[in-house]
Amino acid sequence: MTSELKHHWQPAEQQRHAVAGPLPGGKQHGAGETLDTLCGRRVVAAASNELNWLWPTCDSCMEVAKERVGATT
Length: 73
Description:
- The protein is α+β, with helices and mostly antiparallel strands.
- Helix content is about 15%, strand content about 25%.
- The chain contains one helix and four strands.
- It has a two-stranded antiparallel ribbon.
């Protein structure tokens, strides 16, 4: 098993979306940054805070994320 991140999660547009690869520089994306997500959408990142990490997860991003790590459920 590898410890290299295949994707990471970021609050954006009222959901938590997955983005390919590790966090750039190990830091969260800045508010207003445009991101290409695993679900194929281009979204604008929200500032990372305790509340927006409770936003619902994008179902499409979750499905692709599962495939990328070989999850069977």
